[in-house]
Write a structure and sequence with these properties.
heterodimer; A: alpha+beta; Ubiquitin-like (UB roll); B: alpha/beta; Rossmann fold; 3 domains; 4-stranded parallel sheet; 14 helices; 13 strands; 38% helix
């Protein structure tokens, strides 16, 4: 499915300044794999040594945190936006 | 470094100087302010404080300020109330309430964090400051921004308590209401900080902001006669305050201002939003975010930024975390008011109610020094308890009417028995 991944400024030094990419992915996991395949320098910032999404990296599908959607296995549909937010602040 | 402090990654340890940034660009973990304690030891002594006013700025050397900084307002310096009635009621002998319900200027502990955040905002040249807020922080940003000449723009969930919205609006701040919960607001603010050159106190200024929380801990130690307590009970929203009180205690030990001793840290949440207490109780490697559903709006953060650090601190200190449902929050607010004369908001009800629970569980010992952190004022959340106090019928301004009123009250009381 064609979806868009939005890349925050802090990540763009690993993506040659690219602010977003379109990719074809059926799940969040596939979308993240597509992203890190295109930009291998980003890989270790997205996943930890155990292959899990890093603890302080928040991934959203449209308006929702993917942890409320079943995690990275949740399915995507055409036109979905995937948003990465490093180290959510607040509080 | 010319300053005696700089930003350091809490995970990988990389240092970043002083800049408006909240996370490490190498590993994306949160940053915090690290100090040159060897230099601090030479520079400041506990005795220096004797001639300083009792407010948060008396601990200036432990805060990320700049040379020749002069305080703009008397933030902090709140009472540590030694409990008699509630201590007796709960069967403890050394119970204290650190009462930031009367913190200046906006009646919550958030005045402290905004104090240090706006120093950083000035240093970095921001003209507009803002925040994502569950209410208290918006009040504090609006008040101090007005006093110090910043433009303020705050972002809040659309359904916040009316008193908290009014207490922001009155200072002239721009309020942007967001259709969503606090976590939605927070995510938006992360994007805004990425796009606009604004000083968002709990986003890109967060490391400096959170240092202000330490002064709550410094004051506790000083008010106990430069001693650390055995237990501290702290409300948790994002989980920052509890970790910063711990940092304050560590710093006092490092500088030799208090004797080292084990302090147990206890976290308090509402059951309707309890990702951190849930993580502690279930011994989770990672907390699970929640959708908040509680009257304790100021603690309603389902994805707490410092959740992992709070869980680690609580576990390593030998403390615990608990949560209570909304009806118990209301009862705890009333109990604290009726026994200690302290009117706290819902978050304080959570903390008081959880303390009662921890004592009943035997996790807090009866002869230990326990400090309960009350962080906000009850005047801001009157809606939460209004139903407990129905409006009574008015009487005529005559003595016979008052006598009839008393008769009716006695009759009603007798009937109730």
């Amino acid at each position: 499915m064609p979806v868009t991944i939005e890349i925050p400024t802090a990540f763009r030094r690993f993506t040659d300044g690219t602010p977003k990419i379109d990719c074809s992915a059926a799940t969040i996991a596939e979308a993240l794999n597509d992203l890190t395949t295109r930009f291998p320098a980003l890989s270790r910032h997205v996943r930890d040594e155990q292959g899990q999404i890093r603890q302080f990296l928040n991934v959203y599908l449209n308006e929702e945190d993917i942890r409320f959607l079943g995690g990275e296995g949740c399915t995507l549909k055409e036109g979905d936006r995937v948003l990465l937010v490093p180290s959510i602040a607040g509080g | 470094m010319s300053d005696l402090y700089e930003l350091r990654c809490r995970e990988c340890g990389k240092t970043w100087g002083n800049t408006p940034k909240s996370f490490c660009e190498d590993c994306f973990s949160p940053l915090e302010v690290a100090y040159d304690y060897d230099s601090l030891k030479k520079k400041v002594r506990r005795e220096n404080l004797a001639c300083r006013t009792f407010n948060m700025w008396r601990y200036a050397e432990f805060l990320p300020l700049f040379k020749d900084f002069t305080p703009t307002s008397a933030v902090g310096g709140t009472p540590l109330v030694a409990s008699r009635k509630l201590a007796s009621h709960w069967g403890t002998s050394q119970l204290y309430f650190k009462n930031d319900a009367v913190c200046f200027p906006s009646l919550s502990f958030k005045d402290r964090v905004v104090g240090t955040a706006l120093v950083a905002a000035r240093r970095f040249g921001f003209e507009t400051v803002g925040c994502s807020s569950t209410g208290n922080l918006a009040n504090a940003v609006a008040a101090q921004a007005a006093q110090q000449g910043f433009d303020a723009c705050v972002f809040i969930p659309a359904d916040l308590e009316p008193a908290k919205v009014l207490n922001t609006a009155v200072y002239g701040a721009r309020i942007v209401r967001i259709n969503g919960n606090y976590d939605h607001v927070n995510r938006l603010c992360a994007q805004i900080a990425d796009r606009f050159k604004w000083g968002l106190v709990n986003v890109n200024l967060r490391p400096y902001y959170s240092e202000g929380s330490k002064t709550h801990g410094f004051e506790i130690a000083e008010q106990l006669g430069w001693r650390l307590p055995d237990n501290v009970v702290v409300p948790m929203a994002g989980g920052s305050l509890i970790t910063k009180i711990a940092k304050a205690f560590r710093e006092l030990v490092t500088l030799g201002w208090v004797e080292a001793k084990p302090v147990k840290f206890f976290g308090a949440q509402a059951t309707g939003c309890s990702p951190i207490s849930d993580g502690v109780k279930r011994n989770l490697a990672r907390f699970e975010p929640q959708k908040p559903n509680t009257i304790a709006r100021s603690l309603a953060i389902g994805n707490p930024a410092d959740g992992p650090f709070a869980i680690k601190l609580i576990r390593e200190s030998g403390g615990w975390a608990e949560d209570i449902p909304d009806p118990e929050i209301v009862q705890a607010i009333k109990l604290l008011a009726e026994t200690e004369g302290i009117f706290t908001e819902t978050a304080g009800g959570v903390t008081a109610g959880v303390t009662q629970k921890l004592i009943a569980q035997g996790r807090i010992g009866s002869d230990e020094i326990t400090v309960v952190c009350i962080t906000g004022n009850g005047l801001k959340t009157t809606d939460a308890i209004a139903a407990e106090f129905p409006v009574t019928e008015a009487i005529a301004p005559r003595l016979d009417a008052f006598e009839a009123y008393l008769d009716s009250q006695f009759t009603a009381a007798a009937a109730a028995k």
